[in-house]
Amino acid sequence: MNNRYSGDVQTCQAIASMFTAVGIRTKVEALPIATFFRRQRSGGANGEPEFSSYLAIFGSSSGDQILALVTLMQTNDDAKGVGGNNNGRYSNPEVDRLILKAQETLDDAERESIMHRVMGIAMAENAVMPIYFLKSSWGVSRKTEPRAKRRPIHQGDQYSSRQAVTTGSQRRSGSRRQAMTLSRLSRRDALAAGFRAFATGLGAFAGLVGRTDFARSQERKQLRIGMSAPNTTMDPHLQSNAPNNAVATHIFDTLVNNDEKSQSRPGLATAWRTIDDTHWEFDLRPGVKFSDGVPLTPEDIAASIQRANDLPSTASFRTYTRAIKSVTSPAPGKLLIETATPEPLLPNSLSRIRIIAARNKELPSSDYNSGKAAIGTGPYILRTYTPGSAVALAPNPHYWGKAPPWSEVMLRIITNGGARLAALLSGDLDLVEQVPYDSVERVKKEPKLQLIRGVSSRFVYLAMDTERAVTPFITDREGKPLPANPLHDLRVRQALSMALNRQAIVERVMEGNALAAAQFLPAGGAGTSPRLKPTPFDAAKAGALLAEAGYPKGFRLTIHGPNDRIVNDAKIVQAVAQMFTRIGIDAKVEVMPWSVYATRSSNGEFSVALNSWGVNTGETSNPMVALLATIDVKAGMGAGNSGRYSTPPSTSS
Questions:
Q1: Measured in Å, how far apart are the chain's first and last C-alpha atoms?
Q2: DSSP letter string over 235-265?
Q3: For residues 427 and 473, which has the higher predicted lDDT (pLDDT)?
Q4: The Cα angle at residue 462 between residues 459 and 612, in degrees rounded to 5
Q5: How many Cβ atoms are within 10 Å of 524's Cβ, its own excluded?
Q6: What is the mean pLDDT of residues 499-527?
Q7: For the residues 490-514, what does the mean pLDDT come to?
């Protein structure tokens, strides 16, 4: 490279001179970074890395060496997301084994010892030759108050905790008043104060960190938010997951809104009532227009509900529309919804269905991504969408509610927690979600930052393949196929549950920022039972159950999970694998980006997989219908049942 970092060309020339001194005829080719990266990665005739020897740089934002080892030294496997920068294609099975073992080890001292061993092997083999560490220097105008730029902070990934940080020059007392106010804001109002992007799908301990000097953001009328996970589409009906729903809510309204306690509040409907057991009447808000100025009609609402119900999807919204039989308008300003059976939670379900213009109902999802069909009645309009990178929003000039305070909102996707927080600390962002757990105390002490936290309704769980006769990622300990799927046996599933030390995950992996789960909502939530407690950890009993089920020596299992979606997702999977190993199961881990994982998980490809579910309706029938009901696409049942769990009908009354 000749334009990547200070001294890059001079460093190459110095190395060439040193190689020449020992008899190697060496020449230097320095390239612009844009050209260098492409050729370094795939410039060969068959798409392989092009160079024989090259100078590169790597910054470990994780704060330890494991990220560098996984990225630079592990055998390249793009499908697994490892060896991404291993462009020399170094491969050593022992190095791979030790790296995986280090990732699965919870004990810090043991993990450090393993990394010492793997670094010893890697450095002895000279596959990568470290030369020097860079120092950073900053020039600051005397007119500018010096503010050191912090290095990226280690991401203590999160399981069910969301935290965020904000910017500004308000007095501390004002910051406290703002924090108190924010805790009571509605979801739509939250963005007006800078926190709207995180109103959907928070974890068990939810929070945001933002700068207290929002005054500067307000002066420029621009809000910059760091998101932890990418939305995969701008089509509000294509795939129901938290990142997609959170972004869509800025552009598309719903008939009914859910407040911070999951209570139904007016949206495009100002009031509603039951006519009889299967008919609901809604009063429509007058004077609502789409962002292109066209008035909203009952036909738009009916078309939206129908599209959300019918659109083919691996994560369908049919969970919320399955009971709806018809949508009509008996009089101006009125909407009548008939359900096939009594549906007491219909208003709550309608809070998940975003309203589009009927004229766009047949347009493909690509037209929503481009902005052509992304016409809603919400407070913002879509300016640009760059998948996996950013979403730019601008105010909707025809919005029926209070005018948004921001002339521009930029949602930047930064999946690494340390990088998100560093961008906030440097002033590049005003607000971020999912603050690394090991940075929480530091954030609390930073006068320009504030942390907003609270318990949410998102839970993390393991899905297990209980459908297939032979499951693809379970074999005997020698790697040979088993004659039957062990997960069919309740004793095996009970053993796996007993092998999980949930409290250890909460305390060590989540650093206390989670609650051990026993059911689909925290204790006291609607539909929860006080009799259900988390399964106690009991490795001995788990091993005995495995033996009783016919697996005294266990079996080999691959656990799958995302590495950029759920807080601390990769670490949770690694911890689970280690716990399974203690009861005789040869467990290994395969994690991948959410953009790849989401579809594969929804398609039921895995044997055991880490997932999460946000109970946006605030009551347990929602996850029961989505996760436990036998899959029936037409009926809208089992939309999230990736393990294909199903029980035969009961013969008892």
A1: 74
A2: -TTT---HHHHHHHTTT--BSEEE-TTS-EE
A3: 473
A4: 30
A5: 7
A6: 85
A7: 91
- For 333, the token pair is 């300003």
Strand partners, 271: 283
- pLDDT tens digits, residue range 429-439? 888 887 777 77
pLDDT of residue 184: 34
| Rounded Cα–Cα distance for residues 235 and 367 (Å) | 8
- Between strands 380-386 and 390-395, the pairing is antiparallel
Q: What is the pLDDT of residue 66?
A: 63
Measured distance CA(142)–CA(126) in Å, rounded: 46
Q: Nearest-5° angle of CA 185, CA 187, CA 188?
A: 100
Interacting residues of 133 by C-beta distance below 8 A, sequence separation 6+? none
Q: Please enumerate in sequence order all residues whose Cβ is within 8 A of that of 612, keeping only pairs 6 or more positions apart, or say none.
A: 160, 203, 458, 459, 460, 461, 565, 566
pLDDT for 332: 94
The DSSP code sequence of 440-464 is HHHHHH-TTEEEEEEE-SEEEEEEE
Specify the amino acid at residue 333. G
User: Hey, CA dihedral for 249, 389, 84, 202, is it positive or negative?
Assistant: negative
Among 162-166, 203-207, 368-372, name the most confident range.
368-372
**pTM across the whole model:** 0.54
Confidence of residue 3 (pLDDT cuts 50, 70, 90): low
> How far apart (Å, rounded) are the C-alpha atoms in residues 78 and 593?
10
Report the distance separating Cα 127 and Cα 5, nearest Å.
22
How far apart CA 410 and CA 213 sit, in angstroms, is 18
Q: How far apart are CA 155 and CA 200, in angstroms?
A: 22
At 306, phi and psi to the nearest 5? -65, -45
Confidence class for position 638, pLDDT limits 50, 70, 90:
confident
pLDDT of residue 173: 31
Go through the domains of the chain in sequence order and give each one's CATH number. Answer: 8-125 (3.10.105.10), 165-246+367-455 (3.40.190.10), 253-363 (3.90.76.10), 458-628 (3.10.105.10)
